[in-house]
Each structure stands twice: as structure tokens, then as C-alpha cells.
Description:
Layout: E1 4-8, E2 21-23, E3 36-39, E4 42-46, E5 56-61, H1 64-70, E6 72-77, E7 84-94, E8 128-132, E9 136-144, E10 150-154, E11 167-170, E12 176-178, E13 190-198, E14 204-208, E15 214-222, E16 234-235, E17 240-242, E18 248-251, E19 261-268, E20 279-284, E21 300-305, H2 308-316, E22 320-325, E23 327-335, E24 345-348, E25 355-356, E26 362-365, E27 371-375, E28 381-388, E29 395-400, E30 408-414, E31 420-424, E32 430-434, E33 443-450, E34 454-464, E35 472-475, E36 484-485, E37 498-502, E38 505-509
Amino acid sequence: MKKIFTLITIAFMAISASAQEIALFENGGTFNNGFALTTPNAKLVLGNDRTSKPYDVKLSSCKDYCAQYFGQTVPVKNEETGEMEDKTRVVYVVGNQNPKDGEPDGDASSGSGYKLDKCNLPNSGTYYMFTPAKDGHVCAFVILNSGKNFFVAKGSDGSCLPLSEIVLKADGEEATDVALNDDYTVSEKLTGTVEFDVVANETYYIFCTGSKLSFGGYAFTPAGGDVPTDGLDIEPALPVTFNAWDVSFLIKKTDVKAGDKFIFHIDPVDVEGWQWGAQVLPKSNADWSDLGSAIVPVQGLGTFEITEEFAAVINANGGLRVQGMGCCVTAVEYVEGTDPSTVTKEEFDLTKDWSTWNGNESVVYNADGTLTFNSAVWGGLAKWLGGVDWSNYDELVFEFAEPTTVPVQVYVQYSEGDPGLQYYNPGVTSASITLDPARKGNVSQLALQTAEEASINVKSIYLTKSSAPTSVQKVELNVNDGAVYNLAGQKVDASYKGIVIKNGKKYINK
């Protein structure tokens, strides 16, 4: 059974006495339809803007008010010198289509814009869905054009929050209140924040009609005060700011076991010569030897998984000592997990990083965590793996939300030899392939192929040790290792000519 022990203390830039959770977009990241920006008690999901193009990622200058919540240190080109310099900016996203209530029409949104009397929520275009797990208060960075109707609407019934419950503030040395007119517009362009209270498990749609709302992350403050400080003995008391290498803290816990994990809540701290959020590095209490796992979040949650070797060191030395630089640990959770030896199923993340074999195919990341593959004849929904070890698994499984209407084929490319293929006639709700025992220790690619054009809603993709999995854990596969592979999945060097794969993307090496 899973238990969570949590220690929360003073949070970074709290709006009130409650612990505040801040979620920001990563500079240079790729954010597609259905991408979820999460904190422990809230998530923001990007709406269904386009079927084949991610949201644009841009930078906004900021002053003291917005910088304290949403500012990040990012490289910016100096137009006079041409050199890159570190500046404080807000990283924000913006879509490509105005929000409308119709389904996406290829690469365009369709239907009508939101009306207060119709409560017709958007289904396509640029919009953002915020869902809290607790009652609380949200403050989000937005860039809103003048004369455009701005709404915060409830997903349960489509009704918009009244004007009195939506607070807009312009960025500056201090926040300046901005009036939202009776028609839900602002008189001048706003770069600043929107604030409103939220109810647990309600989804709030944030958007403006006739325009594409820019969004730069959120700060969520759960109601009801801080989480009780039960379960963990930490010395010195949190928060601990790592602004020098001699700073550390000790987690006095000596009954840890393999399969458990520590989760660190981390906020950015500017340290001269360092990017904030640089590192939290577990060390043993006795000799400070490296336990072999660095937690390096940009901001948010960093997880330290406990193996049998780590458990023995931690228990023998009186706990876990944590050292870092350029960040602040505001909370630590300890999660009791399943013994890794009993895990029989590992799922792939369906919200990002999937590609296709042909240019006329597309992948849509859905808000419910599934994906839709719009296929061509013998195209493929693919993930490049670069030689991962699947020795602990026997089978790769695709599950679909509804029976397939066309023949499909599961494809596994090993680093050597011909691929493994398993063909299925139309009408199946799952498709699987048994892994080659002699070659599953080095797998370069997986794919789902279709014999005809179709749209297939993929519910889950996972590896399993048996036909009846009993427990689940997520798996993240690192394909961004910088190595170069040919289309057969074989590692090649810079002299190789032709189409190559690097960090999960195709390039032509001439």
C-alpha cells in the first residue's frame, strides 16, 4: 500500500500563509496539445490548438511584480554586441488559432467563439484548462490584447466567472490593478496576471475570443494552510537554500527500502555564476560518498529513487544527507512504493515526444492523457529509443479506446537484425508483440503501423512481464543522449551519409 509522508514549511514567494506551488514553462521546450504543466495539487493542460504544430514558446521582459513569481534566468541575445547574456524573462506559450467550439479542422479551429448566454466552451484553438485538486487561489501570467473578450469559464457547465471574481494586474515595480470592462475586455494591452479563486476538481477554461491568449505559468495557493509536518525528521528545518557547497541537510530516516522514493519540492534561487535550480545531490551521512543519483529540476519536483544499494547505505548511516547549489528545498515527501521485483508493467507517457514516419501523418495529444494517431498507408506512430534494455520484459502492448477499423501491426526494431512484427486484422482493442529474448537487451525503436489511412485513439502503451499485469509504474525513456543512429537503429558516426536519427528526430547528413 502507498503512503505519503510530507513535510511542508515556508514556500517560495507565498501569496498567503499557505504553501504556494509554482509551475513554469521550460525555455526551449516543446509543448503540444494536451501538454500538462503540474504541481502537487494542480495542473494546467494546453487546449487542442492544432493537430500538427505545437504552441509557440516566447520570452517576455518582466519587472519586479511578475519576476518574483514567473521570472527565469535565460540566455538573451544582446542586439548591440551580438553576444548571449543572462536576463530575467517570463517564458510563455501562445497558440496559432483563435478558440472556437467546433472540432479541429485539419490545422485550423472551427465553430463559433464563446458566448456568455450559450456557455459554449472551446474545443479547438488556443485555450488553457486549469484543474486544482484542492480549493484555493490561482495567479497566472497572461498577455491579453485590448478589445478582446477574456473569460475564465467552468468546465462543469460552461458558465463564466463574474467580473467581480476575476482580478487583473499589470506588471511593474509593483502590481497595478486593471479594470475588466463590462464586456470582459481591457482597454489597453495587458502584460501581467489574472487571479481567481478555484474549487477542488473543477476545471477552469482560460481564453479570449478573437485572439490567442499568451500564458506564462501559474502560482497556486491551496486553501486551508500548510500540509501537516508529519512523518519525516529533517535537520536543519526546511526550507534550506543552497547558495554554497557547504550547505546541506539530513533526512533522519533509517527504514527505507528498495522501491520507495524521496520527492523534493524545489524553488529557484539566483546564485552568482550558477543557473537557479542547478542541483540537489544525495550524499551518505557517514563519508559523503556519492549515492549516484543527482536530482536536477528546472523547478518543481525532483525524485530520488531508492535501490537496494541506496537503501543499505541510507539505513546504515543514519539517513540521507542532501547537498546542492542554486536552489531552495521547501518540502520533502517520502513515498512507499512497490518492491521493484514485483512490478510487472511499465507505461509510456502518451502526452509528449511521439513522432511519425511520414510527413502527412500527425499525432494529437488529448487532454485525457490518450493520443490520436492520424496515419497513412503503412506509416507509423514511432518512438526512437537508441538502444534501451528491455531484458526485464516479455511483451510490448498497445491498447486502443475503440476497436480498430483497419489492419495494424506492432513493430519493434532491434539494434541488430530484422525488426519484430506482429499483424492484426481490423476490430481489435489491443495489439501486442512478444519480445525477442536474444535481442531485447538492445532495442532502438518501437512503432504502430497501419495498412490504411485511419485515426486511431491509443489509450495506453506498455511493457509487461506477463499477460496479466498486477502493478504499474511510469517509465521515462531518455532518447536525448546526443548519439546518432541510422534508420535501422544502428549507432553511426559523423561520416555516415543519409537520413539519421538524433535525439528522437530525423536529419539528413550530407
